[in-house]
Design brief:
InterPro entries: P-loop_NTPase, PPK2-related. This protein is of the alpha/beta class. The protein has two domains: 230 residues, P-loop containing nucleotide triphosphate hydrolases (Rossmann fold); 247 residues, Rossmann fold (3-Layer(aba) Sandwich). The protein contains 19 helices and ten strands. The strands form two sheets. A five-stranded parallel sheet has the order 2-3-1-4-5, with helices on both faces. The protein has a five-stranded parallel sheet with strand order 7-8-6-9-10, with helices on both faces. Helix 2 packs across helix 10, helix 11 packs parallel to helix 19 and helix 12 crosses helix 19. The longest helix is centred in the C-terminal third of the chain and has 34 residues. The relative contact order is 0.12.
């Protein structure tokens, strides 16, 4: 990569082109990808004082400004540090009608700020590569450019910036740190570049000794890569190749094991309710004081009692510390983005709690059963969801998933009750009746979901909702025990770290 880069043998393919002509070619491609609903993400990284701003300016100059964004990523802000490493990038991904240029890439933090150890590199890169793969699999064209300069050129560029009061603000500690120890930074950059150089989105190293030539090269490469990406994505979308019939064998489906006979009398329920609710509230506060985010996902059969369980769970919790999102079909804006985007942007910062009434699991439930998403896409979602939840728990967040289950007869009874009682009419929808007609298909999808996405770090708690008192009681008990276990592990970890320091 950088160590073996030959500055005397740079790419000369675009030397005779005008930058404006290349920009106009890119403008034509912008209209094509917009028409085809193909998002484009261009990551421009490189040495500090290597001319990234100059190149980005040329990349975007001829484009329709309504459909291009430039997002600047430097060191993570205090708010961004209170989320996972990928959260800030998810918020700024392109829609299916946009080209987005990142001034500095996903990997800038790794290049410049993270602890330089193999363990830290492996963990951070794994999360970022997973994000990159999700975008590519969702038909995003991802282009990665790295501007390379010699030690002498970087030093000269810094001097030029210092001499102008209009450009001094562009210099940062990173500029001087890299210039002071160029060789060490080059060695580390090489390691990061090699770890993140992928067959489907490789790094393109561009010599930035001559910025006009560097811009031509960046424009030319971008044109080539978008053209190739359009061809590949169009071919994939129009391919008549059928996937094999989806088969997933489960020896013992989890919903078969749910004991629907479990009951709790109203008297027993009322006896413990307030005590459990206050204990839950105290534990949420403890998580707040320890900067632990809590993410809850409620799924289940229609009319199984998710709303009632959520209401009882949050009864004594400070309403300023949590948000509840009722998830419906994606709206017009949300459909323009990766399906996980609308959930990622609502994830809590450290210390807060978010509850999703329905969640990202719609991808492998309603979207699968109703044929709203191609098979190849929802099949991929299990791995993507597991990765998202792992990234959350690796960051230190709590992820709990509750599945409330009732049988077909109980559902019919509750649907009828909702029809008969005017104050409950709002709870019944045409989608509920539609889903009921496909009961067996939904149960099949639910069993597969529960089997493939139950993990140690983000478990499913499957609860009989046949008796509402039992269900609400169980949600509270599981919630309390999970938070107790989490806080105990945190205490043990802190104690161990303290001993190691001593």
């Amino acid at each position: 990569m950088l160590k073996d880069f030959k500055f005397d043998k740079v790419d000369q393919r675009y030397v005779n082109f005008k930058r404006s002509d290349l920009g106009e070619q890119l403008d034509r491609l912008q209209r094509i990808v917009q028409r085809l609903d193909i998002p484009v993400l261009i990551l421009v990284d490189g040495w500090e004082s290597s001319g990234k701003g100059f190149v980005i300016n040329d990349l975007t100059r001829e484009l329709d400004p309504r459909y291009v964004r430039v997002e600047v990523f430097e060191g993570a802000t205090e708010e961004e540090m209170r989320h996972t490493s990928v959260w800030r990038f998810w918020r700024k991904i392109p829609s299916r009608r946009e080209m987005v240029v990142y001034d500095r890439s996903f990997y800038y933090q790794v290049f410049n700020h993270d602890e330089r150890t193999d363990k830290k590199l492996a963990q951070r890169v794994q999360e970022l590569l997973a994000l990159e793969k999700m975008l590519v699999d969702d038909d995003t064209i991802v282009i990665k450019l790295f501007l390379n300069v010699t030690e002498e050129t970087q030093a000269n560029n810094i001097k030029q910036l210092e001499q102008s009061t209009r450009s001094q603000f562009l210099l940062s500690d990173e500029d001087y740190a890299q210039a002071k120890d160029y060789a060490s930074h080059q060695k580390w950059f090489d390691k990061v570049l090699k770890a993140t150089d992928l067959p489907y989105s490789p790094w393109h190293i561009i010599a930035a000794e001559d910025l006009k030539l560097a811009s031509k090269t960046a424009l030319g490469l971008t044109i080539e890569l978008i053209t190739a990406g359009i061809e590949q994505i169009t071919l994939r979308r129009t391919s008549q190749e059928d996937l094999p019939t989806h088969e997933y064998h489960i020896e013992q489906p989890k919903l078969d094991d749910v004991d629907l006979s479990l009951k709790l009398s109203e008297k027993e329920y009322d006896k413990d309710l307030e005590k459990l609710q206050k204990e839950a509230a105290n534990l949420v506060y403890e998580c707040y004081t320890h900067d632990i985010a809590i993410v809850l996902a409620f799924e289940g059969v229609d009319a199984a009692g998710k709303g009632g369980a959520i209401k009882r769970l949050t009864r004594h919790i400070d309403p300023r510390s949590y948000k509840i999102y009722g998830i419906n079909a994606p709206n017009q804006i949300e459909r323009l983005f990766h399906y996980l985007w609308r959930f990622q942007i609502e994830l809590p910062q450290d210390g807060d709690m978010v509850i999703f009434d329905r969640s990202w699991y719609g991808r492998v439930l309603v979207e699968r059963v109703e044929g709203l998403t191609p098979q190849r896409d929802w099949q991929r979602a299990y791995k993507e969801i597991n990765q998202m939840e792992k990234t959350l728990t690796d960051h230190g967040s709590v992820v709990m998933k509750f599945f409330l289950y009732i049988d077909e007869d109980e559902q019919a009874k509750r649907f009828q009750d909702r029809l008969n009682e005017p104050e409950k009419n709002y709870k019944i929808t045409t989608e509920d009746w539609r889903n009921r007609k496909k009961w067996d298909e939904y149960i099949l999808a639910m069993n597969e979901m529960l089997d493939r996405t139950h993990t140690e770090n983000a478990p499913w708690y499957i609860i009989s909702g046949q008796d509402k008192y039992h269900a609400r009681h169980q949600v509270l008990k599981y919630f309390i025990q999970h938070l107790k276990d989490t806080l105990a592990r945190n205490t043990q970890k802190a104690s161990k770290m303290k001993k190691n320091k001593e």
